[in-house]
Design a protein that fits this description.
Layout (H helix, E strand, L loop, with lengths): L2 H14 L11 E7 L4 E5 L12 H11 L5 E8 L9 H8 L7 E5 L4 E5 H4 L6 H4 L1
Parallel strand pairs: 3-4
Antiparallel strand pairs: 1-2, 1-3, 4-5
Amino acid sequence: MNDADRALVAAAREAMANAYVPYSDYPVGAAVETAAGDVYTGCNVENANYSNTLHAEEVALAGAAREGDYELARVAVTNEERDGLTPCGMCRQTLAEFGGDDLRIVCDTGESAEIRVLGDLLPDTITRERLD
């Protein structure tokens, strides 16, 4: 894990501290870095109607979108266990809308990280080009 990855993981960990998880007690934090170099963070926000729960990656991406910053360069994801958590399938598809198959996913493992790329986590992604 390089220094830039460490900084992104640290931002995700900091965001995780604000997770609202009264039902699962499973806090998650995420940080997205855009091609412009800006970092946006998010945490999961649960709802008694589970389908309305916001995932950390979605919240981070919403921060970037709010600023009109849609081109992703890297994403970091963490949880309390630091077990290499990867984005769920729904978040992978959402990230694919704004980052290519080579989007770097930094999965926190404590002292280090597992580095993945989105194309390996989500092959044959549904894209605008495929819809055409």
